[in-house]
Design a protein that fits this description.
The structure is a homodimer of 398-residue chains. Chain A has ten helices and 18 strands. The first copy, chain A, has 398 residues and is an alpha+beta fold. In chain A, the strands form five sheets. Chain A has a six-stranded mixed β-sheet with strand order 4-3-2-1-5-6, sandwiched between helices.
């Protein structure tokens, strides 16, 4: 819990309510240890148990109605004007607050395509309608998705500093893993090594441990989000691919790294591997060159995709990039194709201050998967890498 | 990920579809690293990224439609009859499966009061309606809450064994903490000790670390779900109260422990502390005695509440008990009062095999909070403790 970042985000949120002419933004949650509204990341930074309402208004009011047992925690943030604790039920308190605020438009956390702006459950929506029966408020509900999205995307200096910090640590962890003796180790063992490394470095994993890191040893591995396989060992003539995200002080990293295991007598990777690496690198750079505020994400994705296919490789079946922040898949827009699964996310314009991954991959028959993934921040007129890009495939020698 | 438990729970789920005459149960999720439907606990045991549908039918079919990058993981569970991977979008595949199954009643994960059965977001509900426009299916939606609830509540032998295991470890951790030199340590330091302990024991925390364990040193602490306070030190004449939940192999514990810090010359706690302890113990035992399958939870809560108030103490402002399993607050019914915040949960009948906490507390003026919390399993005609109950307040000496 860091009060200063929460205070900063709340003030940013109120600016966004004004920008989008939303009278009031209502985050309505319960038992977040089970189903957690991602919007809480920027509103509190910790969980809540009983029905709880976080209300921000265009006038700048910040109100929290929470269970009595959690009201101290919210008060200690020094971020809310009013913290109302209760024992029996929230309905009457919520009605009273809304009546006092008298909003014409109430933003709720639902979205057809933005996963980070869709934290209101269907049951909680139904409860709101039930609790507010006989009031005009249910007819004033609208989506708060623009506010939620921009609040996540426009990272502050403090947020950027935290991402930079975990990136340095992640690169350190990768350095240690890739310089350890890996030949003969299986995917599960390398996955375990990363666990020890994270513990030593005092950091957490940025997504669930089962697939973090993803470890791909050679061409028979399960690519994508596969669980490490104890039957696949690192052997000469194979590409070893890793995809890992770490977390410190609530902020995440997400980087991929690749190595080729030299065979006896080899001093460099085979031409097929080098050629694929170079095509990936150029495609990534082509995507990066297209990034600047205001551009729609699909345009950036297309630039990278075109460059890769121009080199004769099949296109990757995912978005070129996603936001990273408190969550490793931080929601909001994507640098991705306009495919059904991404909904409206690829057409949202890029925001200055956003932190994206940029990532793509090629499977090299007989060797395994090459995957590149770096992180960058969007500047006033372009973007710059936050990670130290892996410019060449690493080499593993006997 | 443990295939055997998942296989067991899936087969139990199909029995429940028959019990509740539900043709088909549809769990519809995406980006579970952000908003996670708790139903996935029993369906997969790991997360999913793109729009994904897990469909079980009364006929016994088990179908998963997931992103291509995650289909290997689902296949490896050996639990699904059909695993369909996709790249672009799920809509057509989902329509085709529903058409083939031709259900009259489709259960979805929404609930007004059961937090574990309310994992469908409002946006995902809207997407379903949109994707299935022109089909009869949206009119056949109903809640799957009874299936979800009983699936969590009726713990199998394998699940029970895992809970027993983490309880043994939790008691070990408590033993070590309470026998360490604690006088002069502040709440935050004791919280940190527990972190080191968990790391040594190779277990995770069962709810968010920030408030796990809850540490209450004396009467000025923040009771309930408070964040540990570095300004409050353990001192003679004070009650130290801890509330901790650990996790191993995906299953949780949740226990409270209490100690009194003897002052110079004292050999036992003051009468006010002993009397309150005894009242809590008797109230807990009165609740326990009321537990058996078929009884409504509020009846159990009332028995404990009445016993406590009979001794002249104010009633606690929470439920006497909640389920514990993959989640520390495992949803479903509660052993709790019929207060607004608990909705329908207190009137659901107790299920055999359920694992509950049983917990209550009294604030002793001048000393701090006494809180008791044990865990138990419901048997055919009653219940038995799974934890080793703390029968007397522990004593901390100089």
């Amino acid at each position: 819990m860091t009060s200063s970042i929460i205070q900063e985000k709340l003030s940013q949120a109120i600016d966004l309510l004004r920008e989008h002419n939303l009278d009031c933004w209502l985050t309505f949650v319960r038992e977040t240890s089970q189903t957690r509204d991602p919007a809480l990341d920027n509103l509190l930074g910790f969980g809540l148990t009983w029905d709880s309402a976080i209300i921000l208004t265009k006038q700048g009011e910040k109100i929290a109605i929470v269970g009595q047992y959690e009201s101290d925690n919210v008060k200690k943030l020094n971020a809310y004007d009013r913290v109302i604790g209760y024992n029996f039920g929230i309905a009457e308190l919520l009605r009273a607050e809304l009546k006092r605020i008298n909003p014409q438009k109430i933003g709720l956390n639902y979205s057809l395509s933005d996963t980070a702006a869709d934290g209101l459950t269907f049951g909680m929506y139904a409860r709101l309608v039930q609790m507010l029966a006989g009031t005009p408020y249910p007819l004033q509900f609208t989506t708060a998705e623009d506010v939620v999205r921009k609040l996540r995307e426009r990272k502050s200096a403090a947020e950027l500093a935290r991402v930079r910090e975990i990136l340095v640590i992640t690169e350190q962890a990768y350095g240690a893993i890739l310089s350890a003796p890996l030949i003969g180790k299986n995917e599960t063992e390398i996955h375990a090594m990363a666990g020890e490394m994270a513990q030593e470095l005092g950091v957490d994993f940025g997504w669930e441990r089962l697939t973090n890191p993803i470890v791909n040893a050679g061409e028979h591995s399960s690519f994508g989000h596969g669980i490490p396989n104890p039957d696949l060992k690192v052997e000469p003539g194979m590409i070893l691919h890793l995809d890992m995200g770490l977390k410190k002080n609530e902020y995440c990293s997400d980087l991929q790294r690749c190595a080729y295991v030299l065979r006896d007598g080899e001093t460099e990777p085979p031409e097929a591997v080098t050629r694929a690496w170079l095509a990936c690198w150029r495609a990534m750079e082509a995507g990066k060159a297209a990034i600047k505020p205001g551009v729609q994400g699909w345009v950036v994705d297309q630039a990278a995709r075109d460059e890769l296919t121009k080199h004769g490789y099949p296109e990757f079946m995912h978005a070129l990039g996603h936001h990273v922040g408190r969550n490793v898949h931080d929601g909001g827009s994507v640098l991705g194709p306009r495919w059904e699964k991404y909904g409206e996310r690829p057409i949202k314009p890029i925001e200055q201050g956003a932190i994206y991954t940029i990532e793509l991959d090629v499977i090299v028959e007989g060797y395994g998967m090459i995957g590149l993934e770096e992180m960058l921040v969007v500047t006033a007129d372009g973007c710059e890498y936050l990670s130290t890009p892996q410019r060449e495939i690493a080499l593993i020698r006997h």
